Known about the structure:
Helix content is 68%, strand content 0%. It is built from three helices and no strands.
Amino acid sequence: MLAAAASGVELQMLPLLGGFFTYKLAVIGRWAAGELAAWRAPAVARAGDAAGRDAAPAPAAGSSEAGGYDARSVDRVFNKGMLAR
C-alpha cells in the first residue's frame, strides 16, 4: 500500500480476478484442445486403415505444421529479436 500511494496506482480486486480466471480458462481450453486432438488421432488412423488408404494424422491446430505458431517457435523468434538488439 505504501508504494501505491507514492505511485498513484491502486489494484482493484474484481479486474484482477477477472484477468486471472480468463487466463486460466484459456490455459485449460488450450490443454483440452490438445488432449482432444491426441484422443481423436488414433480413431482417424483406424478409419483410414479401414478405408484401405494411408491416413496421416492431421497436424494440431496450433502447431507450426498447420500454418500456426506453437509457443516454442514464438519464443525462439522473440529471443532472436531481443538478442539482435
